Amino acid sequence: MAIILPELPYAYDALAPHFDEETMILHHDKHHATYVANVNAALEKHPEIGEDLLALLADPEKNLPADIRQAVINNGGGHLNHALFWEILSPEKTAPSAELAAAIDDAFGSFDAFKETFTQAATTRFGSGWAWLVMDAAGKLSVISTGNQDHPVMQGLTPILGLDVWEHAYYLNYRNVRPNYIKAFFEIVNWAKVSELYQAALA
Ligand code: MN
C-alpha cells in the first residue's frame, strides 16, 4: 500500500492557453510526484498510523509522530492539495449548481463578490501557499488562504475549490504577474465538479 500519484483527468495541453502544457507537465509529473514520493517515505517509517492523510492531518499534533509530522504536513498536504486542484479544473465550461450558487450568494453577497474575495486572498498570500473556498462544520462557506502546503482540514475546514499560488504553478507562463494567473484560473474552473464537492461536503 502506498499513496499513488493520480493521473490528470485531461491531457497536459488541455488547459492551454490558460495553463500551458510545460507547466502542467512539470507541475504534475515533477512537483506533485515528489510530494507523493516524500509522503510515502515518511509514512513508511510509521506503518502503525496508516495512510488516511485527511484523518492524520485533521490533528497533526495528536495523529502524527514528531519525527515525520512536518514531512506529512508538507508532502501529504501537497499531495491532497494537488489531487483536488487537478480535479476542479477543466477545459469545458460548466456552471455552479443552483445550490452552490445560492450558498455563494448567501456567504458573499454575489458571485462577483466571491470572486473578488478569492482573488484578494490569492493575490495577497505572501510567498508560497493556496487560496481556498472552504466549508466549515456548520456548512458555511468562506475564503481563506494557507501557507506552504498546509491543508484546510488542519483548521477543521473542507476545501471546495483551491488555487495553488506557488510560483512553480505560474512562473513559466505568467512570470511575476500572479494576478493574470488568477484571472486565467477562473476561465478553467470545473464548476460542475466544485458543485459535487460542495454537495459531498454538506452530506
Ligand atoms: Mn503546486
Write a concise synopsis of the structure shown:
The chain is built from 9 helices and 3 strands. By secondary structure, the protein is mainly α. The protein folds into 2 domains: 21-87, Orthogonal Bundle (Helix Hairpins), CATH 1.10.287; 98-202, minor pseudopilin epsh fold (3-Layer(bab) Sandwich), CATH 3.55.40.
CA-based shape: globular
Under CATH, the topology of the largest domain is which?
minor pseudopilin epsh fold
Name the beta content range: 5-15%
- Helix/strand/pairing category: mainly alpha
The radius of gyration computed from the alpha-carbon positions, rounded to a whole number of angstroms, is 17 Å
Residue-averaged pLDDT, rounded?
98
The top level CATH class name of the largest domain: Alpha Beta
| Cα-to-Cα separation, first versus last residue | 28 Å
Tally of individual domains: 2
Architecture of the largest domain in CATH?
3-Layer(bab) Sandwich
Low-confidence stretches: none
Query: Counting H and I runs of at least 4 residues, what is the number of helices?
Result: 9
Lateral arrangement of strands in the main beta sheet: 2-1-3
Catalogue the ligands.
manganese (II) ion
Percent of residues in helical segments? 40-55%
Task: Profile the largest sheet.
Answer: 3 strands, antiparallel
Please provide the ordered H/E string of secondary-structure elements.
HHHHHHEEEHHH
